[in-house]
Design a protein that fits this description.
Chain A is of the alpha+beta class. Chain A is built from two helices and six strands. Chain A has a domain of about 80 residues: hypothetical protein PF0899 fold, CATH 3.30.2320.50. The radius of gyration of chain A is 18 Å and the shape is elongated. The two termini of chain A are about 35 Å apart. Classes of the chains: A alpha+beta (about 110), B alpha/beta (about 220). The interface between A and B is large, with 39 and 35 residues.
């Protein structure tokens, strides 16, 4: 449900950059979303279709690039993806971990016409 | 034919909220107002913990409570009855508070008139994690009946907090709650976080929570003096 606020932010950033570039239409929007960032693609798409209406971003395709969560165990240096049940290192059971990826949440680029 | 062009942006989508959160942080610092953001799932006991805290602190501290809920003023009414100045934010459906809502609420009063600000977030274990508010410390209230797997299942929330209060420990004899599994999940995400087990019903452990608050307020005072 927080995707509505998030989608509004995406639209603001997109429109601001498009107007600086004097775009007449936005065709593609490239988003990078880490699995830890708790953003649901379908939900963003759903709100996008509603809030982008009547703007130059209407009809733009949202291109999602998902980044899977990767942890590194600080004890045995195993790099692993948490399996959903537990985030503890599956190799040695350590609880000392570092997040390598999965927290990303940014707008990478847009395609425009002018 | 229209000219087509790719524009590289690479901008954090939460920039707008993060910028406002930073403004809140600065406003609170210059007013020397110590602030906490309390997050939890619905029913974990946020409001009851706040009531207990107010009973202990309002005799000696001026406390401001900002209450976030989708609807009603129940929580703000409870905070006001317990001796705080209370401001209710109704998000009208939003599942979290954001920095803008908090900023608007704070502008309704004079921050330097208070010693402690408690922001009670909307009951939810997912969404509030994405929206920084600008408070000095972030508190998560977990509770025994929710289950010991919550840090494992809601890593986003448990990672970003400064202290975890484990409420309703009076129910431990009746519920399958493995404290070690809970702590282990928390340790992975947030190795140095302090866990304060307590029961708002029996008052067991509350002194430790008050101690944490006093300690952090002292640190804050020194940092801002």
């Amino acid at each position: 449900m927080h995707e509505l606020a998030v989608t509004q932010s995406i639209l603001d950033i997109v429109l601001q950059n498009a107007s600086q570039a004097q775009a007449t239409k936005i065709t593609n929007i490239y988003l990078v979303i880490g699995d830890l960032s708790s953003i649901v693609d379908d939900s963003v798409q759903f709100y996008w279709d509603i809030i982008s209406k009547d703007s130059i971003a209407e009809g733009a395709q949202l291109q999602f690039r998902r980044i899977t969560t990767q942890f590194e165990c600080l004890d045995c240096h195993e790099v692993y993806q948490p399996d959903g049940d537990s985030i503890i290192c599956p190799h040695c059971g350590s609880t000392r971990i570092k997040v390598l990826s999965g927290e990303e949440f940014y707008l990478e680029a847009i395609d425009i016409e002018k | 034919m229209n000219e087509q062009q790719k524009i590289t942006i690479v901008q954090n989508i939460m920039n707008a909220n993060d910028g406002l959160a930073e403004q809140n942080r600065q406003n609170l610092l210059s007013a020397r107002l110590f602030s906490i953001n309390i997050m939890a799932s619905p029913g974990a006991g946020k409001t009851t913990l706040i009531e207990k805290t107010l009973h202990a602190f309002t005799p000696s501290h001026r406390v401001l409570v900002v209450d976030g809920d989708i609807a009603t003023t129940y929580d703000a009414d409870r905070a006001a009855a317990a001796g705080a100045k209370a401001i209710q934010i109704n998000t009208g459906g939003d599942c979290h508070l954001d920095a803008m809502m908090v900023s608007r609420a704070l502008s309704q009063t004079t921050l330097s008139e208070y010693d402690l600000l408690i922001v009670e977030n909307v009951g939810n274990l997912v969404c509030p994690a994405n929206f920084e508010l600008g408070t000095y410390k972030n508190v998560l209230v977990a509770s025994v009946p929710e289950g010991d797997d919550k840090p494992h299942k809601y890593p986003g929330m448990y990672r970003g907090v400064d202290v975890v209060v484990l409420n309703k420990i009076d129910l431990l004899p009746y519920v399958d709650f493995d404290s070690e599994f809970f702590s282990k999940g928390l340790q992975v995400l947030n190795p140095n976080v302090e866990i304060i087990p307590l029961s708002c019903r029996t008052n067991e452990g509350l002194e430790k929570w008050f101690g944490w608050l006093n300690k952090e307020m002292d640190i804050f005072k020194k940092e801002t003096s």
